[in-house]
Specification:
The protein is of the alpha+beta class. It is built from five helices and nine strands; from the N terminus they run ββββααβαββαββα. Helices cover 30% and strands 29% of the residues. The protein starts with 13 loop residues before the first strand and ends with a helix. Belongs to the RNase PH family. Homohexameric ring arranged as a trimer of dimers.
């Protein structure tokens, strides 16, 4: 039995509320169970220097956790003093979101997606990717409405879910109680059509077999399909 009482293939309740901030071109509050992340997308008509005059757009991300997002208070991270974990997560979010974008159609501009964890209960990077896509989609919709781009650069949905082996069972969408005790922990980033973008899986307590990995992948595919449906409902 999972600590939450869910069955092995059952996701936590998913909620995506859009338009939650006044100034950002795109924003949403995504809730995956007790993990809550505020995602905002900001349009910048400039690109990083390495893309100047290339005709290509860019999508990047920043990630952070509020001091009381967890059980005990964490110190705020200055940008130049970010932990390795924070840097790794925000690079993952950026890479993931770029995989679903036609950068030529976006034009020579940058969109920055900020993901701020309000409350953490496992799977914050996955929730950030899933909610980040929604914020990005809303920002691009504003560009299209204004006539600044003529074709939609959003090629596919991008979403992510955690899967792991807890108490000897393969399970989807780990909360903190499971994540902290899992023998294997993984994050699966996928497109709406089921293509793989990135996999992160580690044997933390015991090794896992090819069969178990296949089970994790099957759970991830089903979980991402639920997340994609929630994304599409949010931006409809």
């Amino acid at each position: 039995m999972r600590p939450s009482g869910r069955n092995v293939s059952e996701m936590r309740p998913i909620s995506i509320e859009t338009g939650v901030t006044r100034h950002a071109e795109g924003s949403c509050l995504i809730k995956c169970g007790d993990t809550h992340v505020l995602c905002t997308a900001t349009i910048d008509e400039r690109v990083p220097p390495f893309l100047k005059n290339s005709g290509l757009g860019w999508v990047t991300a920043e990630y952070g956790m509020l001091p009381r997002a967890t059980h005990t208070r964490m110190r705020r991270e200055a940008k130049n003093g970010q932990s390795g974990r924070t840097q790794e997560i925000q690079r993952l979010i950026g890479r993931s979101l770029r995989a679903g974008i036609d950068r030529v159609a976006l034009g020579e501009r940058q969109i920055v997606v900020d993901c701020d964890v309000i409350q953490a209960d496992g799977g914050t990077r996955c929730a950030s990717i899933t909610g980040g896509w929604v914020a990005l989609k809303l920002a691009i919709a504003k560009l299209m409405k204004a006539g600044l781009i003529t074709s939609d650069p959003m090629m596919e949905n991008v979403a992510a879910v955690s899967c792991g082996i807890y108490a000897g069972q393969t399970v989807v969408d780990l909360d903190y109680a499971e994540d902290s005790e899992a023998g294997t922990d993984g994050n699966f980033v996928m497109t709406g059509s089921g293509k793989l973008i990135e996999l992160q899986a580690s044997a933390e307590g015991a090794t896992f077999s090819r069969q178990q990995f296949n089970e994790l992948l099957d759970l991830a595919e089903a979980g991402v399909a639920e997340l994609v449906a929630a994304q599409n409902a949010a931006v409809a």
